[in-house]
Each structure stands twice: as C-alpha cells, then as structure tokens.
Amino acid sequence: MTDPSPVGEESTPFAEELAEAAALDRADPLAWAREQFHTGAQDPPYLDGNSLGRLPRRSLIRLLQVAEEEWGHGLVRSWSGWMGMPTRVGDRLGEVLLGAGPGQVVVADSTSVNLYKLAAAALDALPERPVVVTDRANFPTDRYLLAGLAADRRLKLRSVDFDEVMGPTPEAVGSAVGPDTALVLLSHVDYRSGALADMAGISGVVRDAGALTVWDLSHSVGAVPITLDQSGADLAAGCTYKYLNAGPGSPAFLYVSRHLQRRLQQPIWGWMGKRDPFAMEEPYSPQEGIGSFLSGTPQILGLALVEEGVELLAELGVERVRAKSLALTDHLVGLVDRTLEPLGFRLATPREGQRRGSQVTLRHPRARELCERLDRSGEVILDFRPPDRVRLGCAAPTTSFTDLVRAVGSLARSAAELVSEDAG
Ligand SMILES: *Cc1c(COP(=O)(O)O)cnc(C)c1O
Fold this sequence. Notes:
It is a single chain. The chain has helices spanning 15-26, 57-73, 79-82, 85-98, 111-125, 140-153, 170-174, 199-208, 228-231, 300-316, 318-340, 367-377, 401-423, and strands spanning 105-107, 131-135, 156-160, 181-187, 212-216, 235-238, 253-256, 346-347, 359-363, 383-385, 389-393. With 424 residues, the chain is of the alpha/beta class. The strands form two sheets. A seven-stranded mixed sheet has the order 1-7-6-5-4-2-3, sandwiched between helices. A four-stranded antiparallel sheet has the order 8-9-11-10, covered by helices on one side. It starts with 14 loop residues before the first helix and ends with a helix. Bound molecules: pyridoxal-5'-phosphate (PLP). Residues 110-112, 139, 141-142, 187, 191, 216, 218-219, 239, 252 line the site of pyridoxal-5'-phosphate.
C-alpha cells in the first residue's frame, strides 16, 4: 500500500523519483522557457496544456498594446494594418510550425468551421465520388461535421476502426480508400491516445486512390514538427489555443496546398474572401489564392495572440520543443510502468516515441472517480476523457520533470485511497 503522506516529503516512496526529476530539470536546456509564461511558484502541476495552453507573458503585453493603442487610439484607422493579419500571421505560422511555403495558410474562424470549409470544397471538387472516410475515434467535431456534410449531399460516411493505441497507418488507410473515395479526414495526433500518424505515408496512399486528405493538426501544431508541403498533404486545419498558447477561443488556421487553390472553392462566401471587399455592389467573386478561404471580419485580438504564440515557439525552436517533449513523455512512460501499472493503470499511448505526440494517456477502470478526487483536491490539473482515460499533456515549454512525478504521485495515492476505502 502506498504511504498516504504528501508527495514531496522525504518519507514518501517518490523521494527517489523526485530527486531524479530535479536533476533532469537542472539539466533541461529549455528550463528557461517556463519563465516566458504566466506561472506561479505555488501552481499545481499543469498537465492540460494540450487542452488550453498557458498564457505567454509577451501575449499579455501585446494584448494591452493592441487594445489600448490600435483599438483605443487608432480606432477604425487601424484596419489598414489589421486587414493583412490573417495572411501575414498565416504565412509566419506556416513557415515556423507547418512546413508550408507562403500563400497557403490563413488564420481565421474556428477549427470546426475551417474543417467544414475544406471538406466541402474538396467534396465539390470530386462530385463523382460518393464516400468520405474518417476515423471512428476521431475528435467529435470532426465526425459531426462530416456526418452533416454527408447527410446534406447524400454521401456515405465510412468510419474506420483503427488500432485504438497506434491510430491510422498507411496500410489501414489504404484498405479503406478506393475509386469511390472523395476525401479522408484524419487527426495528425489522436486526441485520445496521443498517437502520431505518418502524414507522408497516409497522404501518399490517399493521393494514389485519387482522393484528397484533410489533416486536423489541433494536437500536433506547436508540439511536433510538421512538414505539410514535403508530406504531400492536400488540406489541413487546426487550433491555436492548445500547444500554440494563443488563448481560449483564439482563431484557428487552415492550409490549402498551392496546387489545389485554383480548383477549390469554399462554401462560405463572405465579403473578406472577395476580390475587393469594399466594392459593395459587385456580386461575389473570390480573390486569387488562399485569401479566397476567408469569410468575415478577422478576429484581431486573437490574431495578435496567435502571432505572439508563433514568435515564442520560433524563439524556443520547434526541434528543441520536440526533443524535450519526447524526453518528458519517455520519462513519464517509465514512471507509469514502475509505479502506476501495479495500481491498475494501463498505458494507452504508443511506447515508441516517434509514434507519439506530446501526451501520455492512461486507462483505469475508475478513472472518473480518480480525476474527480484530484479535481477536488486541486493538487494537479489533468483531464479525464470518458469512459476511462486520463490524459497527461506534456506541453514541453512549461512542463517540468518534477511536475510529472508530482502528478504520478497524486494518481498513485488516489488510486491507493480508493482501494483502501473499499476495503475499509
Ligand atoms: C481541440 C480540437 C478541435 C477544436 O475545434 P473547435 O472548432 O476549436 O472547437 C477540433 N479538432 C481536434 C482534433 C481538436 O483536438
């Protein structure tokens, strides 16, 4: 039975793990990054950066500056600078985080809306193909919007059961697509297991079948190096409030490969996607290039924070972020094997680092009770995904090895408490 005294004291079974973690934290070349964020010394370990990233200090300063100077003082005159933001920030995001050359990314709307635009445009371009393919375990909004599109157009939605830990592979996708398939929508990193898909391999298989890929990058952007152009991805979208730290409800992005831009037309015809938005009498006629994927007025405050999030990650270096993320998740898998497996937890994330995003998922039959307990005590922030998953998000810039040990210690103690309460 685990000693119920708080983790962090000499007498706990985690003393050795804490000492080891402290040494890893001292040697961490990215340890300074934590200071770039709004954090407090007394904060509980935050292992939910995969749901909502922390607030960068520079973003708070930028938010005040945009609000006070550009909005407060500049008023409507500031639109001269603001109008270009969706494409300017999109280009920079593409360069720093997506491996996308200029003119292929815009920052606007939400991930749900962007995925809808991309999927609808792809379906319109391949009207003779009646099948849409996705992962049955894909994020709900992705599945719902495809179901809506399929119902609307009388298409067939083919939901594939991929391996629940390893996610979709090129082979499995290959056997799910054919001459009937118009598009395949998949997550690059699975939100439940954290599995990282082989983007180049899968995009190739889908291209060979004559279909188009739509990648959801919500759980990979800012955590995993992405090479959209090189991987032969067709279309992609993702959100900016997770590993990109742009704040709750910050605008999402979308990518349309240059070779498709002439062929695709998105379905939400708004004035911002038009050739000249201020030629108000004219009928709709889309602008050239990626700008045609815009619809309405850009979300300026959020866009400014996306820009700060991208610049911060550019300074940290995506490769360094990935290296630390792998070190963190490897360490966590080791801790789980040693201390949580015996308490009924099961690893539900790929063991091989290269197949993993930046989270570790555990399954436990009483995960809900465990998470409710930790929620009440406030000693660690992590998240529960029904029916039995605990997700431990390891946002590399702000997570320490000590955070991991504290979280594992809390899970171990809570699990042991449940068992002893049952017995008592
Ligand atoms: C977080 C997330 C979304 C969020 O979509 P919103 O439109 O921002 O609500 C979509 N897809 C995936 C895979 C996500 O992880």
